Amino acid sequence: MQLSHEAQARMAALPVISRARGWRLYGADGRRYLDLWADGGRYIAGRRSGASGRIAKESIDRGLDAAFPSFWEGRLRKAMLAWLPGYSSLWFFASETEALLALASADGDFAARIGRGASLSEALNGFAARLRVESPFGGYRRDYKADAGGTAFDGRIAIALLPLANAWSFGIVLGKGLENSGEAAIFPCEAFGSAVPAIKLATAARALADFRTFEKGYGEKEWAVIDPFVAGIFTRSGPWLYPAYPASEHGRVFSACLAKGIVISPEYGEPSLVPGEFDAGEVAALPAIKVL
């Protein structure tokens, strides 16, 4: 889902970013910023890391920018189910919003919210908040539903978020035990082919493979290095950093971090991230930020 208006306003305070690599952003003003946001965690393995960028370029060069039948669909499907072995079904949608709309159509509360005058965005956000989410190190996410109950699917359905840039993202739905149920009928039939351009499938498959390699060297030992610098400002859950201050303080803390060359999550309800690589000098100024 897109950033809130408040988060967009915070991000607008950044200078023009002329280049990004790893966990650093390079501004047109000549400053370098340590990126603890990583596009909502999508760049958990760093920007321009691995071979997904090369795969995307090769796909463009081959003209694979439409929803043609592609062997990458089978590769990604196999890789996803190996990464998340508790699921038996998987469906692709052209966008994350389309995936949520397909799921929400079977949820009574979503229809009720619309009936009470909620906007489509508000109703969809309310529905998404009750869905199970599978993502890199998602087990440490305090903002995710642990049991995913309260929807029409009772935990048998999940949305998958890959370590993939927003520009290449699309909708992925995972299912448990739906093969012989009528609920599977709300999803696009595989016989009609993929609704996702081949370039996105290829980039996603490569990004997932790159992440599986990256995660082997990204664990508690690496995450704990940041603890002395974030104490009192954030509480850490695995690689995720949650605000230790009230929501009313978030705008001020975001601005204070930005002034010190650090970009944190612009959304109060979404965590920041321990970078995969940083040095003490880049985060040494954090303890000076005072919070309520």
Tell me the structural class: alpha+beta
Instruction: Provide the low-confidence segments as ranges.
Output: 188-193
Radius of gyration using CA atoms only: 20 Å
Give the spatial strand order of the biggest sheet. Answer: 1-2-3-10
If helices are DSSP runs of H or I spanning 4 or more residues, what is the number of helices? 11
SSE arrangement, N to C: HEEEHHEHHHEEEHHHEEHEEH
Residues in helix, %: 25-40%
Strand content: 5-15%
N- and C-termini, Cα separation = 30 Å
| Count of the domains | 2
Question: How many individual β-strands?
Answer: 11
Mean pLDDT: 86
Overall 3D form: globular
Major sheet: size, sense and barrel closure? Answer: 4 strands, mixed
Task: Explain the overall architecture.
With 292 residues, the protein is an alpha+beta fold. The chain folds into two domains: 14-45 and 219-288, Aspartate Aminotransferase, domain 1 (Alpha-Beta Complex), CATH 3.90.1150.10; 52-215. The chain is built from eleven helices and eleven strands. The protein has helices at 5-11, 52-61, 71-83, 96-104, 108-115, 120-128, 198-214, 220-223, 227-230, 250-259, 280-283; strands at residues 17-21, 24-27, 32-35, 89-93, 132-134, 157-160, 171-175, 234-237, 240-243, 262-263, 272-273. Helix 3 runs parallel beside helix 7 (198-214). The longest helix has 17 residues, at 198-214. The radius of gyration is 20 Å and the shape is globular.
